[in-house]
Amino acid sequence: AGESRDVVLPRYGSLRGEVRRADGNEVGSFWVGLDHLSGDAGPGAQFKAAEGAAAAHFAFDWLPPGDYRIAVEFDDGASAVIPRVTVQSGQETECKPVIAAFPVSVTGKVTGPAGPVPYARLAASSDGFPSVDASADEEGNFEIALIGGIPWSIRVSGEGHRSQNVAITPAHEGPPLWIT
Description:
The chain is an all-beta fold. It has no helices and 16 strands.
């Protein structure tokens, strides 16, 4: 007679999500790649949003359970990353929206009534994004990397000067920002 063995098949999960652009532009065509954080490369797939759509959805089925990194890239260079999403065995995981944007280098000069403000501190914040800090040099010049196309509030402070909030929405390209 033959030998009998129990075989346990792994249960897989699925991952669903939404992609939007921070600047509100049409989503168009985009690539979503998954990396299993155990070190194994995960699947990737090309998706295309409906014409004129401001958001699009992606889905991956039959994923081994575990933690994944999600990377999204658009044809025009905009990108986004969600560093960790956990896929559970036998469950559908809905990740938070992936908001893709262009990084923009905002440069400018902090000045006061008497001229440049050396070593001024800048703290930029925007809903749903990590805050970004920077400092001006001895001439008041600064450079700060932000996500373009969305509104930011920059709190500027310098020794001997009253703090000030400046609202900006950096474009993909544009003139320097002068803060006075």
